[in-house]
Amino acid sequence: MNLRAPAILIASRHHGETAAIARLLTEEFGVVAAYIAGGRGRQLRPVMIPGNRIEAELRSKSDSQLPFAKLELTESRGPWLTEPLPAAAIGWACALTATALPERNPYPSLFSALDALLSAVCQAPSARGWLPAMIAYETLLLRELGYGGERPETGDELAGLLAAFDRLEGPLARYLLADRRGDVMAARHLLRERLARMLT
After folding, report:
1. How far apart are CA 29 and CA 24, in angstroms?
2. Would you identify the CATH topology of the domain 2-75?
């Protein structure tokens, strides 16, 4: 593997004392895991935030080897992680994507949809502006992975949007997260709790 591509960083975990393993969603190659030397260091810490849009350069000697990656930040979603509701939305969207998608299978429509969803979360004045995009993304993910994915009726009111969001939880847990839903669904439950506060 020897490629350079725009990507969305969807997960990052520590590896050794200073490195990190990142999962990147690319349009052409799907999800790619990569080793990031110095990923825990001061210079790369602002880059290694799930949700960030980056330019990734990946190199490996064989397809079976974990590629080494150099990352360049092109759009940071970090400033919105200080706000509880956008932070929960970004965390859930990235965790769902990182867990549900198989590696190295391209899903260009999901790449575009996730990028649009994350931009909406960061730019909309309230959750009413991005919750329809979240529902559409979850529906598209189910459809792309072969589990139907008929978009629930929402209406324009927040209560209708939340009801549609709730109806998607069962299919997501049953079909996409059946083996590892505990930790990942906790991110969705946190988002749902924060959305519920908007009704009170």
Report:
1. 10
2. OB fold (Dihydrolipoamide Acetyltransferase, E2P) (2.40.50)
H helices within 57-198, ranges in order? 84-100, 108-123, 127-144, 158-171, 181-196
3-class secondary-structure state, position 48 = coil
**Residue range 126-184, pLDDT digits in tens:** 999 999 999 999 999 999 999 987 777 776 688 899 999 999 999 999 999 887 756 89
Q: How far apart are CA 147 and CA 86, in angstroms?
A: 27
User: CA triplet 63, 68, 70: central angle to 5 degrees?
Assistant: 135
CA dihedral 190, 156, 51, 76 (to 10 degrees): -120
Task: Using a pLDDT cut of 90, give the percent of the chain over it.
Answer: 80
The bridge status of strand 53-59 relative to strand 68-75 is antiparallel
Q: Where exactly are the structural domains of the chain?
A: 2-75, 79-199
- 70: which 2 tokens? 């150099």
